[in-house]
Amino acid sequence: MENDNTIRRLKTVEGHMRGVIRMLEEDAYCIDVIRQIQAVEAALNKVSAQILEDHLNSCVTTAIKGNDPKERERVLKEITEVFEMANKV
Amino acid sequence: MENDNTIRRLKTVEGHMRGVIRMLEEDAYCIDVIRQIQAVEAALNKVSAQILEDHLNSCVTTAIKGNDPKERERVLKEITEVFEMANKV
Amino acid sequence: MENDNTIRRLKTVEGHMRGVIRMLEEDAYCIDVIRQIQAVEAALNKVSAQILEDHLNSCVTTAIKGNDPKERERVLKEITEVFEMANKV
Amino acid sequence: MENDNTIRRLKTVEGHMRGVIRMLEEDAYCIDVIRQIQAVEAALNKVSAQILEDHLNSCVTTAIKGNDPKERERVLKEITEVFEMANKV
Fold first, then answer.
1. CATH 2.40.50.140: does it fit domain A2-88?
2. pTM (2 decimals)?
């Protein structure tokens, strides 16, 4: 369910990106192209946040409520890792 | 020329993004999807930097050497704007 | 305990920032100043990730194991919020 | 002149950061600390953009109008580099 929504949003972003490629093919102004690439990235950030939210409410919650400390540690470590990477891209 | 290279790189990123959509359709693990989206963004950042470099060496250089102070001001303002936005996406 | 470590790291970053101010007072080259500001930001990102990791292993784990669904929802929502903001700064 | 303004703004950010350290010393809520660190980073981004703008209007303009192609190339390369790094921090 949530997946369908995420897929739909990513397909929109993909369409946006094809638009950027078309701009380049038609020799659009460089700065306009950069701005559109940045808009694509902003849209990707929103999709990532949505996926993370779903993940926290499903897998992470299950792992923390569960009895496997290794698994709990693993899912929490992953959250920190994608957070760190979010700061970098 | 530079455009051809940029278009080719963006098409690769577009292929990467279709791969991410496929991952979602095949119910891949959320964190793996987020990591791939972040990889797409890192690739987009590199393409943006390439476009900016070409732009600085062409349009910006021409405008600064030219005699139109308004035009010079405009191109420099744009550089600051995409730099500010780069900090945000 | 973890707090002491975080405080120490932030004090180091604060010292770094005083160094940047000194560079400006001594008319350092603009690009070198920008690079140092970016280094300060990279250090802040690392501290944030450390704080988030501690938070996930303490408050978040407690809330998810606990019996208050509102509280659980709240802590998870916050993670998504700081993740979204991490993409923006 | 512009320097004085930049120094004043960075000193404000430094004060903000001391506030964050105080929050940690007083055991503030982790997420509130992370949000304040992100606010510090947003402020640093604004200062960087201001410094870049001043730099474009002074050193970069001089180098491009000048007769040293090596120097022109150097200053333009630096802009691309800080832009790339802005995407990462």
1. no
2. 0.93
